[in-house]
Amino acid sequence: MTQSSPPRFRFLYRIYRFYRDGFSEMTVGYTLWKIIFLKLFILFAVFKVFFFPDFLAVNFATDAQRADHVLEQLTREVLGSTNLGKGEAP
User: Fold this and answer.
1) Residues near 88 by Cβ (< 8 Å), separated by ≥ 6?
2) Record's InterPro entries (predicted)?
3) What is the pLDDT along the chain (90 residues), one digit of tens a residue?
4) Which pTM value belongs to this model?
5) Domain assignments of the chain as residue spans, ordered by start
6) CA 71 vs CA 54, 61, 63, 74: distances in Å
């Protein structure tokens, strides 16, 4: 009696084999993946450095001050909004 792997592992192996065979047969795909990774690098690394300064590090000296500011911003009440609890009528 031979033992076979559970159906879930066979399914995962088939998915792995599908992608492995697909990527190994690519011709234009390698160039496209290089372009995709270059764009992601530009978006996350270059833009963050030049366009998104570290607001909390610049404006607050300690971690406690930063934490208080974030907590205040997350829990402050917005003007004009209605915060109805469960079961309350407008």
Assistant:
1) none
2) DUF4492
3) 456 667 788 999 999 999 888 877 888 888 888 899 999 999 888 888 888 878 888 899 999 999 999 999 999 877 666 655 555 555
4) 0.42
5) 7-75
6) 17, 16, 12, 5
